[in-house]
């Protein structure tokens, strides 16, 4: 199967790096210089400057543009695609149908970890395309099919925006080590090792059990955990997910 990515930004680049291992990938964008840079980073892809009348009939499109650009880009896309896989946050299938013609529509939300085949990708849409969609995006990491667009918008807040939230946590823990006296490079090395080891642990152990296993009575973890609860870290994370979800819904309007 040949996949056509429309857009040449960070998400398109991450997807292309993962997908070229199994698929023929075409990248269509409006910036020739960015496309040249894209080709340098992923030599296996075929790049093409978008034409004023870009024919998409029978193509399998992965739409990687910004949500606000949908109407503008759709004006130059003609014909009926075989399938549209949209990674546009908050953009409903109804909105996709209003702007683009295709036999099937899928909404999907990968994250930047796709570049390392470690994305957590959520998918929903036409059930007839479920098998193909799950297979395509399994090439860039784990996949989860949900049965409604609302669930996908929530998943966008959790796994789509999640790398940015985890980056905030990683940066904060690093800064905490520096404040206590560690060299920044050493603190950074510790945090990278922490995250690398935590992923397989989380796959096997419930978060609450991890906490209880580390937190001994009157110990260092208990002191630090209490301080974080006093600072409303848990509440802040929950509100952050809620705010990201609400923004996804707003974008859909």
Shape: elongated
Regions with little confidence, pLDDT below 50 for 5+ residues: none
Strand order of the largest sheet: 3-2-1-5-7-8-9-10
Helical content class: 40-55%
Order of helices and strands: EHEHEEEHEEHEEHEHHHHHH
The pLDDT mean sits at 94
Instruction: Give the DSSP E fraction (strand runs of 2 or more residues).
Output: 15-25%
List the helices and strands and how they pair.
Blueprint: E1 2-6, H1 10-19, E2 24-29, H2 32-41, E3 46-49, E4 54-55, E5 60-63, H3 70-74, E6 77-78, E7 81-86, H4 93-99, E8 102-109, E9 119-125, H5 130-138, E10 141-145, H6 149-160, H7 162-180, H8 184-204, H9 207-214, H10 220-230, H11 233-252
Parallel strand pairs: 1-2, 1-5, 2-3, 4-6, 5-7, 7-8, 9-10
Antiparallel strand pairs: 8-9
Helix pairs in contact: 6-11, 7-8
Question: What features would you describe in this structure?
Answer:
The protein has 253 residues and is of the alpha/beta class. Helix content is 52%, strand content 19%. The protein contains eleven helices and ten strands. Strands 3-2-1-5-7-8-9-10 form an eight-stranded mixed sheet, sandwiched between helices. The radius of gyration is 21 Å and the shape is elongated. The two termini are 33 Å apart. The model has no long low-confidence stretch (mean pLDDT 94).
């Amino acid at each position: 199967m040949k996949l056509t990515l429309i857009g040449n930004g960070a998400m398109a680049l991450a997807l292309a790096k993962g997908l070229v291992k199994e698929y023929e990938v075409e990248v269509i964008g409006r910036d020739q210089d960015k496309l040249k840079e894209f080709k340098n980073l992923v030599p296996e892809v075929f790049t093409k400057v978008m034409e004023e009348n870009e024919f998409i009939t029978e193509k399998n499109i992965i739409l990687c543009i910004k949500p606000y650009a949908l109407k503008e880009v759709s004006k130059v896309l003609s014909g009926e695609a075989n399938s549209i896989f949209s990674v546009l946050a908050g953009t409903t299938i109804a909105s996709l149908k209003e702007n683009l013609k295709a036999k099937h529509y899928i909404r999907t939300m990968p994250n930047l970890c796709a570049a390392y085949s470690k994305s957590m990708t959520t998918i929903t849409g036409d059930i007839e395309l479920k098998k193909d969609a799950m297979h395509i995006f399994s090439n860039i990491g784990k996949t989860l099919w949900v049965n409604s667009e609302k669930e996908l918008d929530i998943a966008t807040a959790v796994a789509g925006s999640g790398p940015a939230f985890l980056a905030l946590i990683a940066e904060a823990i690093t800064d905490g080590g520096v404040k206590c006296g560690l060299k920044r490079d050493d603190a950074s090395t510790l945090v990278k090792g922490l995250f690398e080891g935590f992923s397989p642990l989380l796959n096997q152990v419930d978060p609450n059990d991890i906490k209880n296993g580390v937190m001994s009575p009157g110990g260092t973890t208990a002191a630090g955990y209490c301080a974080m609860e006093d600072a409303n870290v848990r509440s802040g994370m929950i509100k952050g997910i809620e705010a990201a979800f609400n923004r996804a819904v707003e974008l859909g309007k």
